[in-house]
């Protein structure tokens, strides 16, 4: 079964729900149709949206994150281009 290609699900909050619900999450894998209510996710292992590492989902993550991710990727909210720009500025400062 293609649905079992990945061991852990990678969760995204369901947006634009017809009834405005914010407590539903779905797996982002294109082959996976897994969907789940947030109350079943507390304490479960999942795959980080950003780094792909396994982590444990907490209530706090379920409230705050649109894409569930691990603690190492807390700064993941920033778009990558912004991070690169910061990096570049630092390096320029070292050179000049
Ligand atoms: Zn899945
Ligand atoms: Zn991560």
Describe the structure concisely.
The chain is α+β, with helices and mostly antiparallel strands and 96 residues long. It has helices at 59-64, 80-95, and strands at 11-13, 24-27, 35-37, 45-47, 54-56. The longest helix has 16 residues, at 80-95.
Shape category: elongated
Total count of strands: 5
Mean pLDDT: 84
Largest sheet: 3 strands, antiparallel
What percentage of the residues does DSSP assign to strands (E)? 15-25%
Bound molecules: zinc ion
Describe the overall structure:
This protein is of the alpha+beta class. The protein is 23% helix and 17% strand. The protein contains 2 helices and 5 strands. It has a 3-stranded antiparallel β-sheet, with no helix packed on it. Strand 2 and strand 3 form a beta hairpin. The N and C termini lie far apart (56 Å). The model has no long low-confidence stretch (mean pLDDT 84).
How is the secondary structure organized here?
Blueprint: E1 11-13, E2 24-27, E3 35-37, E4 45-47, E5 54-56, H1 59-64, H2 80-95
Antiparallel strand pairs: 1-2, 2-3, 4-5
This protein binds zinc ion (ZN) (2 copies).
What attributes characterize this protein structure?
alpha+beta; three-stranded antiparallel beta sheet; two-stranded antiparallel ribbon; 2 helices; binds zinc ion
């Amino acid at each position: 079964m293609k649905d079992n290609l990945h061991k852990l699900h990678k969760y995204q909050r369901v947006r634009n729900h017809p009834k405005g619900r914010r407590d539903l999450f779905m797996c982002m894998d294109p082959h996976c149709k897994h969907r789940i209510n947030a109350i079943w996710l507390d304490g479960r292992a999942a795959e980080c949206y950003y780094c792909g590492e396994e982590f444990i989902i907490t209530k706090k993550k379920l409230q705050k994150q649109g894409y569930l991710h691990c603690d190492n990727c807390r700064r993941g909210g920033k778009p990558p281009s912004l991070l690169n720009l910061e990096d570049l500025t630092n390096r320029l400062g070292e050179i000049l």
